[in-house]
Amino acid sequence: MNYNFHWRPVFKDLPDLLDAALLTLEVAALSMILGVLIGLGLSLIRIHMKGPVKWFATAWVELARNTPALLQLFFFGFGLGAFGIHFSPYLIVLMGLTFNNAGYLSENFRGGFNAIPDTQMRASRSLGMTAFQAYTRIIIPQVLRIVYHPMTNQMVWAVLMSSLGMLVGFRELSGETQFFASKTFRIFEYFAVTAVIYYFIVKIILGASRLLAIRLFRY
Amino acid sequence: MQPTATFFSGFSPNDLLFLGGAALRTLWISLLAISIGSLMGIIFGWALSVSGVAGSFTLAPFLDIFRSVPLIIQLVLFFNFAPIIGLKLDPFEAGLIVLLVYTSANVANVVRGGIEAVGEPMRRAARSLGMTYWQDLRYVVWPIGLRAVFPAWVGVALGVMKDSALVSVLGYVELLKASQILVTRTQETILILAIVGAFYFALSYPVSYYASRLEKRWSQ
Questions:
Q1: Min Cα–Cα distance to chain A from B171, Å
Q2: Is residue A40 situated within a structural domain?
Q3: Is position A4 within any domain?
Q4: How many domains, in total, are found in chain B?
Q5: Which residue of B has its CA nearest to A156?
Q6: Residue B92 is assigned to a structural domain of this protein
Q7: What per-residue confidence (pLDDT) applies to A72?
């Protein structure tokens, strides 16, 4: 093994990498928030609606779940370019991740909705709540509790998937790493440090979600 | 008027054959990764479930690394690390090794869940009926655990099939890389992405549909 590791340039660029890591977290968190909202909508549509709207929701979910995330990113990045629609790399990654998250989460939510007995809905309606109130105050909080663990997993997935941004020119953690790596040719060193950063991001998310669970599910 | 050279040519039926070949390569690398990776995962998962505290401080954190670092980083890292220790790997081999380890780490987690899904009283009952440890694993834990985690395993397997698209980063010409080559030549992005999407969908959807049917039948 006659290879000299050069860690110094990596540590010199570490602040930039950590900034990029924040960008990774930001895009993943945003895509999760949007994904939860859209996912809820999609699962409600699939439960209650008929006709084209339902087909649209079903198509969304099945496409998101049965094609690679990278292909979805390419679609938003390059595919829409065929129609003259161009987005910034940030938006491409955000939309790709949101599309994917919404699809996966919607399937989780559907299971969650099915687990809530119908009597809950009837009870809240007979107490004089509107359907909207019943959903936002009674049903959805319980669903979110049921799918809390899958949602945490999905958040981790969103962080890991955001690394695909490097292939559409987005300078989040992976993109920034690739940028520095191609500048210095210390590919292994840079990516090793990035792997460590990702590991800690994931650990922090899981730890935070565990703490949050203690706070949220006291009763 | 100057004659202009054309660098681009349209999408032709021949390219479908090219994509078909690439789809077979995607299928090949993911079948290898899923089958061998699952076997390794079963062994790791069993080891996790029997090793107790020792395992949770050694094997578990080790496997956890592969589930906490993006696959694309693992691929780039390994592909650039192999030459350092003197291994000459082509993109297929490097990609396959990373996918194998990634699959086994995920399957190990699933398998551990399956083994833990079988209650301790049931296993004690099996042993008191005179079954050996391996008979207990084979005839009690396996059938019950399999039912509990089969959907999760299908999810992992399909995930690996889709994630095999990332091996394109190393230069292995599978489905996604093939689509990029064609897009560069034909400039017909949306058409080719749609076709490739349809290929992936055709590989993935039947399996997930069948698995959810099976899950429903088992849960009755």
A1: 13
A2: yes
A3: no
A4: 1
A5: B68
A6: yes
A7: 94
Q: Tell whether A5 is covered by a domain.
A: no
10 Å Cβ neighbour count for A11? Answer: 11
Cβ–Cβ under 8 Å, residues A160 and B163: no
Question: The domain that contains A116 carries what CATH number?
Answer: 1.10.3720.10
Length of chain B in residues, anyone?
220
CATH label of the domain that carries residue B213: 1.10.3720.10
Residue B106 and residue B67 in contact, taking contact as beta carbons nearer than 8 Å: yes
B193 CA to centre of own chain: 22
Pairwise CB contact (< 8 Å): A67 & B204: yes
- pTM metric for this prediction: 0.90
Does B71 map to a domain?
yes
Can you tell me the distance from the alpha carbon of A159 to that of B145, in angstroms, rounded to the nearest whole number?
A: 30
DSSP states along A172-187: SHHHHHHHHHHHH--H
Tell me whether residue B51 is in a domain. yes
Amino acid at the residue A46:
R
pLDDT band at B40 (very low <50, low <70, confident <90, very high): very high
pLDDT at A218: 78
Residue type at A206 in one-letter notation: L
CB A13 within 8 Å of CB A186 = no
Containing structural domain, residue A176: 14-216
Contact A71/A92 with Cβ under 8 angstroms?
A: no
Nearest residue, CB atoms, B73 vs list A69, A74, A198? A198
* ipTM rounded to 2 decimals: 0.89
- Residue A200: name the closest of A22, A59, A35 by CA: A22
From chain A, pick out residues whose CB is under 8 angstroms from the CB of B200: 66-68, 71
How many structural domains are present in chain A?
1
**How many helical (H) and strand (E) elements, i.e. helices and strands, does chain A have?**
11, 0
Inter-chain contact B169–A167, Cβ cutoff 8 Å? yes
Look up the domain containing B109 and give its range: 13-219
Residues A123-149: pLDDT tens digits? 999 999 999 999 999 999 999 999 999
Mutate to test the interface with A, among B8, B29, B63, B76 (most CBs of A within 10 A): B76
Is residue B49 within 8 A of residue B116, CB to CB? The reply is yes
Residue A7 domain-assigned (yes or no): no
Contacts of A27 in chain B (CB under 8 A): none
Residues in CB range of B167: below 8 A, 6 or more apart: B29, B75, B91, B92, B95, B99, B174
Assigned domain for B8 exists: no
Torsion-angle region of B10 (φ positive above 0: left; ψ -120 to 50: alpha; else: beta): beta
Q: With an 8 Å Cβ cutoff, are B68 and A194 in contact?
A: no
**Whose CA is closest to A35, among A130, A120, A162, A142?**
A162
